[in-house]
Amino acid sequence: MDVEHIRRQLAAxxxxxxxxxxxxxxxxxxxxxxxxxxxxxxxxxxFVRLNNGPPSSDYNVLKxxxxxxxxxxxxxxxxxxxxPVELPPLWLHPSNGQPSHVQPAAVAIxxxxxxxxxxxxxxxxxxxxxxxFDELLIGLLGHELRNPLSAVLLSAGFxxxxxxxxxxxxxxxxxxxxxxxxxxRLVNDLLDFVRIRMGDGLPIRIEPIDxxxxxxxxxxxxxxxxxxxxxxxxxxxxxxxxxxxxxxxQMMLNLVANALKHGAVNHPVQxxxxxxGDHVGLSVYNEGNTIPAQELPTLFGxxxxxxxAYARRATSGGLGLGLFVVEQIVVAHGGQIQVNSRDGEGTxxxxxxxxxxxxxxxxxxxxxxxxxxxxxxxNDQRAFWERADADRKSSS
Length: 396
Known about the structure:
By secondary structure, this protein is an alpha+beta fold. It has 3 domains: 128 residues, Beta-Lactamase, CATH 3.30.450; 64 residues, Helix Hairpins (Orthogonal Bundle), CATH 1.10.287; 189 residues, Histidine kinase-like ATPase, C-terminal domain (Heat Shock Protein 90), CATH 3.30.565. The chain is 43% helix and 21% strand. The strands form 3 sheets. It has a 5-stranded antiparallel β-sheet, with helices on both faces. β9 and β10 form a beta hairpin. The longest helix is centred in the middle third of the chain and has 31 residues. The protein is elongated, with a radius of gyration of 24 Å.
């Protein structure tokens, strides 16, 4: 439905201004509208109730200390470039509207742009919804699932090490281990999601590592979990840096699992790692089904559901959190992620990580909606991806 169609419908309504005013005033969700520098120019009664008071006359969302943590700053900056985004829920104390961990209320915040008739972006709209029950239920499920699952993994691991099993018993034990490990990854993704949604960000524990050595361990795990699929890893250049090895492993397993789910069964998934200057680049490539253009803007969102075959495959057998967690791991390391997916060329997820996570602030995330120019850091890395593409095409 285009803008002109909506205008024709409004023209048939008695007093369109009063009609729209009534919708805003009576909406059951909080609403704020900002100008392009972040100043609040309009809010409704539901927002006042949710926040237990109106915003101050000089309120500016870009200067609000509640939104200074990185988990809010990155998507908030994207929103003011014209990208529709969802912020992690802001946990508010219901008695005074201030951030608190006592008697919390979780408020989900959605932002989207308004445009003039000539296409210029004019305002940013923020919609606020109470999601307290949903957030607490997700957290409870994650924690309650982890303890019994840990018991299953420990018991199966003990049997694997200490017990002489016949071939049939070994096969069933391997099935228990593989299924339990997959469930553990899903639970970990769920718990990470809860941490991020509570505004705490994703915790990382950095240490000096060599990604070439790290890649060997990742390859072994991938061969165990996907014994019937072809996965190729190529590492080149100086791959030493300061990162969280466990988080990078989680990131890579999620990306490869996504590539295997959507990629052609008779073609390998190709992982490339290359060091260059102050950054290291990682890419995961698969042939086969590409990502529809309409799915790209929300590809890294949590629990994404869509009507396309790609979206249905993405959430089948999982929670729809894999790529969401991948992006958060990249952001926590001060890195960038982007995806290229075209018919005839396959799909490539590209990641850039600074070598020294401890000394970096998070870099801007490259737009996935096609409306933002890549940052200089991306342009500096373009030669790496051109070489990777050339190597892939020459080997196919």
